[in-house]
Design brief:
heterodimer; A: alpha/beta; D-Maltodextrin-Binding Protein, domain 2; 2 domains; 5-stranded mixed β-sheet; 17 helices; about 45% helix; globular; B: about 290 residues; MetI-like fold; 14 helices; transmembrane helix (chain B)
């Protein structure tokens, strides 16, 4: 009996001890908590946790490549050497919506990282309750030195609360095409520019007649890269804002016509959704929609056969002509859990300084520079890269509409569009559903 | 202290750690979710909005699509029940190679749903082995997009569910079968009962409690356990056509800003549905057993 009691008491003590340990508000358990300083504030040691969503740290073609050989590790080493006492703890996490989910859950638990990289626009602004406003850490000189600030500023305004620092530029989404397959079909969009959707259809038909599938798109029908541009160019950026605010309906004749022509691409057998990039790089399909991010791989695969053009205008009556979607699609943010927001901003500004952006660009990073007045031609002789940088600065480049829509609506559009392209949802119903969803989101605000 | 008091105290103290753990990881989150289902909650701040979340759930039309998806999975349970039963009887009767098949059927059960899901996603891709196999047999053009169409996407999901549950089901029924007296089977064989007669007149009636257990646990699984499978195979698509309620709770909580309150309300609705379905099942099975 005494032994039993002893065991019970021991178990109780262990349980209580464990629960106390789990529930105690141990301040040092936060990611930044390892930072410590001595009484005099000298030799202050700061550890910044950086959730990396964008910098490559694995080479798919060379698994033996050491981490220290990747750009971001070299940059961190440079920063740590220049700032004794500051260490950067880089942790790789998945990107895109997964990064936002992880950042949100960490924010709720108040154990977010000091720094991470999120998609810009409403993807970031929808999480602002977990993000440190940065205005007090940024001086005007820094702001003037970079482009893309509206993508991380409250209400997309030129001035206001800044929730992030724009990270490079995605360039402008256009069409990457296989010149040889185009030539075999007797089409040359450079010599005979396409004026509208009918011209585009005509060109695709000629390609199809040669036995080649003209277009490869992702499973969601490349809504973000392609269809969204036709939407945006028909109503303009103010029109997109009106759609978001409920002043303009998705279900309007212009967008319905866009949808009908878009579906026609599928009905005519112009599109495959099977492994788009691989098929394009292997010369099995004639074109894909893409921007700067695909150029390097496409160039390696197709060499001089690679062509690049803008997405043709949907019609002559479009509000925006000869453009595309793009801009600063991502930005660095500092989480509210950070104990060292100022140090975190310093590190971000180091990464986004002109020298570092040039260094990562030369390293083959998938983004263009967003440094004001930079001439990318100084660092590359690839005409398409130079052209991408020029396109990105043109007023006809519309900032990613999916970053302007509420993030929930963007996710919904991509899901529902996969039904449209498989002929399981008529265009008119699709647009009505988008209106319904948008109204629902507005009603819940 | 009186001996009986000491005993009682010791009993309660022994229960305390488990109770505290349950409070921390079950009761508190449940109460918290219930409270937040009446609020608009963005993860940082919340304010009371009464029944508005529930009103949205029952009026926006989404719930019925989600419920339909859950019901489709629910309706697939008799299939896996029958399959598990047949496999377990064959293993029980020690048909040739039964040791090999026993391991073979159980292997998928030890795999994580995400692993099974990703495997199936690759197998059922347009250029996956299933299409290649069907094409080689001349049964299709090899370009079937399994996951892009609602009926075939459900077929793939149900196939995954079956594949993963079969081993567990066979094991449960094997343990049930081992509790049935061999003499009953022997005497029925002597009386001339064939295999099917023995299955329907001896095995199944003797296994009613096991069948009830299997059905109830899988019915609950069909409401609260499909997330990993759906996430890794279809991501709820095409559209939201294969999205069950638990997956929608995830979407609303973590991919829709400011919707944690709505997500909490949806969790409460799911809790009530599961409670109701389990209650109905238990009532029906009690009546059936009688």
């Amino acid at each position: 009996m005494a032994l039993k009691k002893g065991w019970t008491a021991l178990l109780l003590i262990i349980c209580i001890g464990l629960m106390t340990a789990c529930s105690s508000n141990n301040k040092d358990s936060s990611p930044s908590g390892s930072a410590a300083s001595n009484d005099g504030g000298q030799d202050k040691k700061i550890k910044l946790v950086f959730w990396n969503t964008s910098y490559p740290t694995i080479d798919e073609n060379d698994k033996t490549k050491k981490k220290e050989e990747f750009y971001i590790y070299k940059a961190i080493k440079r920063y740590e050497e220049a700032h004794p006492g500051v260490t950067i703890d880089i942790q790789d996490i998945p990107d895109g919506t997964n990064a936002m989910t992880k950042f949100q859950t960490a924010g709720i638990a108040n154990n977010g990282p000091d720094i991470t990289n999120l998609w810009s626009g409403n993807y970031t602004l929808d999480l602002k309750q977990f993000i440190q406003p940065l205005n007090e850490y940024l001086d005007q000189k820094v702001i003037d030195g970079m482009t893309g600030w509206s993508s991380v500023t409250e209400n997309f305004a030129d001035k206001g609360t800044i929730y992030g620092i724009p990270d490079g530029s995605d360039g402008t989404i256009g069409i990457l095409y296989n010149k040889k397959l185009f030539a075999d079909a007797g089409v040359d969009p450079e010599k005979m520019p396409l004026k509208n959707v009918q011209d585009f259809m005509g060109m695709l038909q000629k390609i199809k007649d040669t036995g080649v599938t003209p277009i490869a798109m992702e499973d969601d029908g490349d809504f973000v890269y392609f269809l969204d541009y036709w939407f945006a160019q028909m109503v303009g950026t103010p029109g997109i804002n009106d759609i978001v605010n409920g002043k303009l309906k998705f279900s309007n004749p212009q967008l319905l016509e866009v949808m009908n022509q878009y579906i026609q691409l599928y009905k005519n057998g112009f599109v495959t959704n099977d492994q788009p990039q691989t098929q394009f790089y292997n010369g099995k399909v004639a074109l894909i929609f893409g921007g700067y991010g695909y150029l390097s791989d496409a160039r390696n695969a197709l060499g001089d056969d690679l062509g690049m053009m803008k997405i043709p205008d949907f019609s002559e009556s479009a509000v925006v002509h000869n453009g595309g979607v793009g801009g600063s699609g991502a930005g660095f943010v500092v989480s509210k859990s950070s104990k060292y927001p100022e140090e975190a901003v310093k590190f971000i500004l180091f990464l986004l300084s002109e020298e570092e952006q040039i260094a990562r660009f030369k390293d083959g990073y998938g983004k263009l520079l967003n440094v004001t007045n930079v001439e990318v031609g100084k660092f590359t002789d690839d005409p398409y890269i130079i052209r991408q940088q020029q396109w990105a600065n043109e007023p006809s480049t519309i900032f990613w509409p999916d970053n302007i829509y509420p993030s929930e609506l963007s996710t919904y559009i991509s899901s529902m569009n996969s039904l449209v392209i498989k002929k399981q949802l008529p265009a008119a119903d699709f647009l009505s559903k988008l209106d319904q969803k948008r109204d629902e989101i507005l009603a819940q605000k | 202290m009186h001996y009986r008091t000491k005993e009682t105290l010791s009993g309660y103290l022994s229960l305390l750690p488990a109770f505290l753990a349950l409070t921390a990881i079950i009761f508190y989150p449940m109460a918290n979710t219930f409270f937040h289902s009446f609020t608009k909650w963005d993860g940082a701040t919340s304010h009371w909005i009464g029944l508005r979340n529930y009103k949205f759930i029952f009026t926006n039309g989404e719930l019925w699509t989600l419920l339909r998806n859950n019901v489709i999975f629910l309706l697939s349970i008799p299939g896996i029940l029958l399959l598990s039963l047949i496999v377990s009887v064959l293993l029980f009767e020690e048909v040739r190679g039964w040791r090999f098949f026993r391991s073979l059927y159980y292997i998928p059960t030890i795999l994580s749903s995400v692993v099974v899901g990703l495997l199936m996603r690759m197998m059922f891709a347009q250029s996956g082995v299933i299409n290649q196999f069907l094409h080689a047999l001349g049964l299709s053009d090899g370009k079937l997009e399994w996951l892009s169409h609602v009926p075939t996407a459900f077929l793939v999901l149900i196939f995954c569910f079956y594949w993963q549950t079969l081993g567990q089901g066979a094991l449960i029924f094997l343990s049930g079968l081992s509790s049935i007296s061999h003499e009953i089977f022997e005497s029925s064989s002597i009386d001339g009962a064939n295999w099917w007669q023995r299955l329907f007149h001896i095995t199944i009636p003797s296994l009613i409690p096991t069948i009830v257990y299997f059905t109830v646990t899988n019915a609950i699984y069909c409401f609260i356990g499909l997330f990993a499978l759906v996430y890794s195979v279809t991501k709820g698509g095409p559209g939201l056509e294969t999205t069950p309620i638990d997956y929608m709770i995830y979407i609303k909580a973590f991919q829709s800003p400011d919707q944690l309150g709505y997500s909490s309300a949806l969790s409460i609705v799911l809790f009530v549905i599961v409670l109701f379905v389990s209650w109905v099942q238990l009532r029906l099975s009690n009546r059936f057993q009688e």
